[in-house]
Amino acid sequence: MTRFQQLMRILTLGLTFSASCALPYVHIKFYDVIREVTQTTNNELGLLMTVFTAVGMLLYIPGGLLADRCSARKLLALSLGIVALCNFFFAFYHTYAIALFIWGVLAVAVNMIGWSALIKAVRESGGKDEQGRVFGSFYGSTGIFSSIIGFVGAAVYGSVAERVVGFQYMLIGQGVFAVVALLGVLFFVADRTPYNEHVETPVEAPLKSALKVLRLSSVWLMVLLIFCGYGLYIGIGYMTPYTTNVLGVSVTFGAVLGTIRAFGLRVFTGPFSGYVSDKIGSTALVMIFCFFALIVMLVVLLMLPVGTSSAIIILMTLLFSFFGLVGFTIMFSCMEEIRIPAQYTGMAVSVISLLGYVPDGLFGPLFGHWLDIYGNDGYAVIFHFLIALCVIGALTATLIYRRGRTLRAAAENA
């Protein structure tokens, strides 16, 4: 695989991720509009994500089994085709009943058919000694494409006076991005790469494969690492309300900082963190440093008084976001360091995602509960919780680093 082919493959996979997530999470950008077109209450709209999350969690394991036994290229193409059709269909038929059905279909397409196959394809995009750069570049590209899809969608929506018509055009645009990603997969995502040329497809019964993966201690270490890394990624989202509600910056200033953290930093932290982790030969070592750096950042943020200068607020919040994103963008590359067998990548990813992404549905309500009870003092509770998460993450990354070093030494002496 040439460097150009590798680059196009990674960019295609990044676009695949961004295009796949655009419709399920469309409420983040167009909350009031989607309520208007579906004629729903806030609670009913929230149920859409409940359907997507619940159905998706039930289908992670079957999706992992599919990814290990089927062509990742075909699975991704099928997933993107369904996503595109869902966008086009919802653009013209958007009753609440249809929305519930579509969000259920999206859970099948994105979480079962697409997710494990996507991470497997990313892992197979580079050699064993460049997994950091591969995953870092992948997540960096998702920042680029998510921004492009978001900005284009907003521009298309804003170009039409009628809100519902603008929403329709935006959905059609998202469907077009999914079609472009599908074509990219067909052109640039080959099933055979130098990474997997000697990897055999599992031939045992699916249940036996699942049990084999569940018995791997390395998988459970990855579950804990992803749980901590993703939990801290969610914590980054609370920097914006903290700076406005506690430190006293303006809402506009906080929104600008939030946008930079959410999209701008990911574009640079992904490739940077991947390069550094490959250079020193250990992703886990980079994550250990990040977890300890985050502890320092959180302690300092807790000590900042009201009225702190904007320069210091910018520096501290961006540093916190930087180290959080460095860990988040490369955490899956630890699969190689801890030697999770390549033929079980799909199944391993499904188990890791099923349990490691629990913070997605847990931390939001938990943090919101603390803020409702304690008001602005709830941010201190959240930050202390994140510090504890950093400690657990650092210990887990240390175990992964030591295990990886032992496995490398054994391989060299064999």
TrEMBL record:
Transmembrane helix keyword on record: yes
A GO MF annotation of the entry reads: transmembrane transporter activity
Entry membrane topology: Multi-pass membrane protein
- Where are its TM segments located? 46-63, 75-94, 100-122, 134-157, 169-190, 219-240, 246-268, 280-304, 310-332, 344-367, 379-401
* Entry-linked InterPro entries: MFS, MFS_dom, MFS_trans_sf, MFS_Transporters
GO terms for CC? plasma membrane
Which Pfam family would be a valid example here?
Answer: MFS_1
User: Which positions fall inside the Major facilitator superfamily (MFS) profile domain?
Assistant: 1-405
- Listed CDD domains: MFS
What keywords sit in the KW lines?
Answer: Cell membrane, Membrane, Transmembrane, Transmembrane helix, Transport
Q: Where in the cell is it found?
A: Cell membrane
Is Membrane set as a keyword in this record? yes
PANTHER family annotated for this entry?
Answer: INTEGRAL MEMBRANE TRANSPORT PROTEIN, RESISTANCE PROTEIN MDTM, PUTATIVE-RELATED-RELATED
List the protein's name: MFS transporter
